[in-house]
C-alpha cells in the first residue's frame, strides 16, 4: 500500500510540473523556431557571400541584390498574383461552403458529406493532391502552367477559409436575419446589410490567411508549374540547389516579413460588438 505522504508528494510534483509546462513550451518554441530565424536575419546583413558568426561588418548589399534580381521580382509578382487569386476565390468559395455547413436547409448527412469533401486537402498528402490535379489537367488539355497551379492553390486554401468563416457563422444570432425579413427585407438585402457586416472580420482574416498560404506554397507549385512560371518558394529552392547562401538569407527574411505583416494585420481585426 502506497503511503499517503508519497501520494501527496506525487500530487504536488504533478501540480508543479503542470504549472511550469507553459513556460517550458515557450522556451522550446523560442529555441527551435525563433532563434534560427533570428540567426538567418543576422547573417543576412553580412556582406560576405558565405557569412559566418560573428559578422565583422554590416551591409544591406544582399537585400539590394534580391530586390533588383529580375528573376526574383518576376517570381514575386507571380506569387502575389496567385495569392490575390487564392484570397478572393478561396474566400468566396469559403463563404458559400460555410453557409452550406451552418445555415443551409440541407440535411445533416449532406452537410457532413460537404464538410468531408472540403476538408480532403487537409488529410490527403499534398503530393497526391498535386499529382491528381496534374493528371486531370493533362487529360483535359491544360497541361502544366499557371492555370493548374492556381487551381491547386485554390483547393489548398479552401478548407481554411471555409472553416474559419463557418466558425463565425455559427456564432451569429439567426434572429437578426429573421427580424430583417419580418421588416420586409429581401434575402439579398438581409445578407448585404446584416449578415455580411457581421462576417466581415472573419472574411478579411480568411482572405489574408489564404493569401499567406498561397504565397508560401511550394509542393503544389513545384509539381504543377512546369518550366513556364516560377514563384518565390520555387526561386528560393533554386537558390538552395546552387548554394547561394547570402542571397537566400536576405530573400528568406523578406518572405518572413511579408508573412509577419499579414499576420499582424489579421490580428487587428476583432469581432463586431
Automatic annotation (TrEMBL):
Pfam families: BPD_transp_1 (PF00528). One of its GO terms (biological process) is transmembrane transport. Its main location: membrane. PROSITE patterns: ABC_TM1 (PS50928). Signal peptide: none annotated. It is found in: Cell membrane. Residues 76-266 form the ABC transmembrane type-1 domain. The keyword Membrane applies. Belongs to the binding-protein-dependent transport system permease family. CysTW subfamily. This is ABC-type transport system permease protein. It comes from Haloquadratum walsbyi (strain DSM 16790 / HBSQ001).
